[in-house]
Write a structure and sequence with these properties.
With 656 residues, the protein is α+β, with helices and mostly antiparallel strands. The chain has 5 domains: 109 residues, no CATH class; 65 residues, Calcium-transporting ATPase, cytoplasmic transduction domain A (Distorted Sandwich), CATH 2.70.150.10; 120 residues, no CATH class; 131 residues, HAD superfamily/HAD-like (Rossmann fold); 114 residues, Calcium-transporting ATPase, cytoplasmic domain N (3-Layer(aba) Sandwich). It has 22 helices and 22 strands. The strands form 4 sheets. The protein has a 7-stranded mixed beta sheet, with helices on both faces. A 6-stranded antiparallel beta sheet has the order 2-1-3-9-4-7, with no helix packed on it. Strands 12-17-16-15-14-13 form a 6-stranded antiparallel beta sheet. Strand 1 and strand 2 form a beta hairpin. The longest helix is centred in the C-terminal third of the chain and has 35 residues. It is found in: Cell membrane; Membrane. It holds the Pfam family Hydrolase. Its EC number is 7.2.2.12.
Length: 656
C-alpha cells in the first residue's frame, strides 16, 4: 500500500511547489505550515463538536437532541476531518489503488454512522486526523537536520568583472574567475585562497564547529562561512560541481534508496490490506450460516472495528521515518549515508579493510629525524639539502623545504636528475648528491649500515664525495587513529585489515603501531581489489572498505560498504562510496556503525510493536471484546508510539 501523504524524498523546496496531487487537508509540506493555526483548526473544531455532543448525550441535557438533529450535529463534527480522507480514498480508487488506508478509514467510519454509532465514527476519524498531524510534525522534525543543509547553499557571488566586484548568481560564475567573500558570508564556490590567510566555519560540511584556518594557495570549499576579514578566492569548480552542491544532491536523494526492510513492509502492506478487507466482509456475513442468534448490526460493528485496526499506518510510516531519522542523525555527526539500505548494510559488517595514507595517516610528509654526519652544523647541512630540493617537485622535497634553517639561503646550480635515484648539483662551490642509497653506491660513497634498518623514506646527502648525513621522512598518524581502531573493535568488528600502496615495511610498522590484525603494502589499486574480492568469497564475511576515494574507487565500489574519507576534497569519493566521513576522522567509522545499529533496532522495535498490538486487538475485535476505542488505539495510538520511538534517534548521542 502506498503511503502517499508523506513522501520522504520531497526535501527540495523546488519539488514541493504545487506538486502534491494528493491533498487530503492535512499538512504535508513544511514546518512553517505546521506551525500555522489553520492547520489544526479542522481537528480542533471536530474535537469541540464531538465532546459537546457526547456531553449532551451523557447528561441528556437537551431533550430535542435526538433524531435528525443529533445526526446533523455529528455529521458537522465529522466533515472537517472526514471529507479530506474520503476524497483521498476516492481519488486513489480512480487511479486503481483500492486498498488504501483512506479507503479503510472511510468505510469503517461511514459504516459506524450507518449503524448509528455517530460519536465513535467521528472519534475514529478525529484521532486519525490528529495522528496524521503528529506524524507530519515528526517527519518534519526528522527532516530538519537534512533540510538545514539547504540553508548553506549560497545564493549570490561577488565576482570580479569589468574592474569591479559585482553580485551574480553563483551558477553563472566560471572556473578561474576571482570572487570576494566578506565577513559572515558563505563561500559560494570551491576555489583556491588568494588572500594570505582565512578562517572558516565549516560546520555545514564537516559537522565540526571548530574554525578551520587555511593559508594562501590552499583549497576553500563552498558552504564554508568566512569568519575573519574580506578574502578573495579563485574558483576551481562550477557551482553545480562544488562540494556543497554534490553533498546536497546526495543527501536529498538518500531516502530514494530504500532498505530491504522498508521495501518488504511496503510490499507486505499491499498484500495484507486487501486480505483484511475480505476478512472483514467474511466476518460480517459468514456467521449468519453458523450462529443461531445472528444479528447483522453486531457483526457489522465487529467488522468495522476489524477494518480500523487493520490500517498499517504504524508500519508504513514509522519504518521509513526510523531510517530517515538515522540518516539525519548521521549527517548531524558529519557522516553521510547515501541511502537507508547502507544503514542496514553497516549493521552486518564484521570485517573492516582500510587504506593507510589519508585514512589513518594525514597523507602529509613530515621530517621525522635529521642525522648530520658532516662537519657542518645541522642548520648549514640542511641548507645544502634544501638548496637541492628546491629544484624538485617531489612531495618529499616539499616536506624538506618546510624545515626552518637559520642563516642565509644557499642556491644550487648545475642541478641534474639521476633517474630513479635523486639529484646531483653544485651548492656553494661544492658538489652535492641528494637521493637514495642507489645514488650513493653508484658514486662510490660509503653508506652507514644503520640506514639499512630504517623503515621510513630516507633522503641521503653526500657533500664533496663524502657521506654527510640523511633525513627520514614519514607520514603522520591522525590524532584519532588509535582511538578509531579501538572503537571499531568495541563496536564488534572481528577483523581489521590494512591494504596500502605504500612500502610494505612502512605499512607493517603502522599496522603494528595501531594493533591491526593483518596488513599488506606495495599494492596497486587492482591488487587491493583482488584482496577484497578474496575476502568476500569467505562465508559470512561482510566487508567495509575505507579509503580516500581517489585511487581506491574500484575497491570502494566492490566492497559491501564503501566508506570514503575526505568527502570535502574528493569527487570520486562522493560518486563511488556508500558512506562519506566528512571530517576525515577515522573515529567516525565506529560511530557510523553504531548509528546504523541504533536505527535498525528502532525499526524492528516498531515492527514488533505494530504487529503485536494489532494482532491482539484484531482477535479481541473479531470476538466482540474490543470497541472502536480499542481499535483507535491499535491504529492511531500504535502509530504515534512508533513515531515517538523513531524520533528518539534525533536525541541519541554516540560517543567516539
Amino acid at each position: 500500500m502506498k503511503k502517499k501523504k508523506v513522501n520522504l524524498r520531497d526535501i527540495d523546496p523546488k519539488e514541493h511547489k504545487g506538486e502534491h496531487s494528493h491533498d487530503d487537508g492535512h499538512n504535508h509540506s513544511s514546518p512553517e505550515e505546521l506551525s500555522n493555526f489553520r492547520t489544526y483548526l479542522p481537528a480542533i473544531f471536530s474535537f469541540v463538536m464531538l465532546i459537546a455532543g457526547i456531553a449532551i448525550d451523557y447528561f441528556d441535557a437537551f431533550p430535542f437532541f435526538k433524531g435528525w438533529i443529533r445526526i446533523v450535529w455529528y455529521t458537522v463534527a465529522y466533515i472537517p476531518v472526514g471529507f479530506p480522507v474520503i476524497r483521498e480514498g476516492w481519488n486513489s480508487i480512480l487511479k486503481g489503488d483500492f486498498f488504501t488506508e483512506f479507503f479503510l478509514m472511510s468505510i469503517a467510519t461511514l459504516g459506524a454512522f450507518a449503524i448509528g454509532e455517530y460519536p465513535e465514527g467521528v472519534a475514529v476519524m478525529l484521532f486519525y486526523a490528529v495522528g496524521e498531524l503528529f506524524q507530519n510534525a515528526a517527519v518534519n522534525r526528522a527532516k530538519r537536520n537534512i533540510k538545514a543543509l539547504l540553508d548553506v547553499r549560497p545564493n549570490e557571488a561577488l565576482v570580479y568583472r569589468d574592474d569591479d566586484f559585482v553580485s551574480v548568481n553563483p551558477e553563472t560564475v566560471e572556473i578561474g574567475e576571482k570572487i570576494q567573500v566578506r565577513v559572515g558570508e558563505k563561500v559560494p564556490l570551491d576555489g583556491i585562497l588568494l588572500s594570505d590567510k582565512g578562517s572558516f566555519n565549516t560546520a555545514a560540511l564537516t559537522g565540526e564547529s571548530k574554525p578551520d584556518t587555511i593559508a594562501k594557495g590552499e583549497k576553500v570549499f563552498a558552504g564554508s562561512i568566512n569568519l575573519d576579514g574580506v578574502i578573495e578566492v579563485e574558483t576551481t569548480k562550477e557551482f553545480k560541481d562544488s562540494s556543497i552542491a554534490r553533498i546536497l544532491d546526495m543527501v536529498q536523494n538518500a531516502t530514494a534508496r530504500k532498505s530491504k526492510t522498508e521495501l518488504f513492509i511496503r510490499k507486505f502492506a499491499r498484500i495484507y490490506t486487501p486480505i483484511v478487507v475480505f476478512l472483514a466482509i467474511g466476518l460480517t456475513f459468514l456467521p449468519y450460516f453458523f450462529i443461531d442468534d445472528y444479528v447483522f448490526r453486531d457483526w457489522l460493528y465487529r467488522a468495522l472495528i476489524f477494518l480500523v485496526i487493520s490500517c498499517p499506518c504504524a508500519l508504513v510510516i514509522s519504518i521509513p521515518l526510523g531510517y530517515f531519522g538515522g540518516l539525519g542523525a548521521a549527517s548531524r555527526n558529519g557522516i553521510l549515508f547515501k541511502g537507508a539500505s547502507f544503514l542496514d548494510a553497516m549493521t552486518k559488517v564484521n570485517t573492516v579493510v582500510m587504506d593507510k595514507t589519508g585514512t589513518v595517516t594525514k597523507g602529509v610528509f613530515k621530517i621525522k629525524e635529521v642525522v648530520n654526519n658532516s662537519a657542518f652544523a645541522e642548520a648549514e647541512f640542511m641548507q645544502y639539502l634544501m638548496a637541492m630540493e628546491e629544484q624538485s617537485t617531489h612531495p618529499i622535497a616539499k616536506a624538506i623545504l618546510e624545515y626552518k634553517a637559520d642563516g642565509a639561503d644557499l642556491e644550487a646550480t648545475e642541478v641534474s636528475e639521476v633517474a630513479g635515484k635523486g639529484l646531483k648539483g653544485t651548492v656553494n662551490g661544492k658538489t652535492v648528491l641528494v637521493g637514495n642509497k642507489a645514488l650513493m653506491t653508484s658514486n662510490s660513497i660509503e653508506v652507514p649500515s644503520e640506514t639499512d634498518s630504517i623503515v621510513e623514506s630516507i633522503v641521503m646527502v653526500a657533500i664533496e664525495g663524502k657521506f654527510a648525513g640523511y633525513v627520514t621522512i614519514a607520514d603522520e598518524l591522525k590524532e584519532d587513529a588509535h582511538q578509531a581502531i579501538k572503537q571499531i573493535r568495541e563496536a564488534g568488528i572481528s577483523k581489521i585489515i590494512m591494504l596500502s600502496g605504500d612500502k610494505d615495511s612502512i605499512t607493517q610498522q603502522v599496522s603494528k603501531e595501531l594493533n591491526i590484525d593483518w596488513a599488506k603494502g606495495g599494492l596497486l589499486p587492482e591488487d587491493k581489489l583482488n584482496e577484497v574480492e578474496e575476502l568476500k568469497k569467505q562465508p559470512e564475511t561482510k566487508v567495509a572498505f575505507i579509503g580516500d576515494g581517489i585511487n581506491d574507487a574500484p575497491v570502494l565500489a566492490a566492497s559491501g560498504v564503501g566508506i570514503a574519507m575526505g568527502g570535502l576534497g574528493s569527487d570520486v569519493a562522493i560518486e563511488t562510496a556508500d558512506v562519506i566521513i566528512q571530517t576525515d576522522q577515522p573515529s567516525k567509522i565506529a560511530r557510523a556503525i553504531k548509528i546504523g545499529r541504533s536505527t535498525r533496532k528502532i525499526v524492528w522495535q516498531n515492527i514488533g510493536l505494530a504487529f503485536g498490538v494489532k494482532v491482539i486487538v484484531l482477535i479481541l475485535g473479531a470476538g466482540g471484546l474490543a470497541t472502536m476505542w480499542e481499535a483507535v488505539f491499535a491504529d492511531v495510538g500504535v502509530a504515534l508510539l512508533a513515531i515517538l520511538n523513531a524520533v528518539r534517534l534525533q536525541r541519541m548521542k554516540w560517543q567516539s
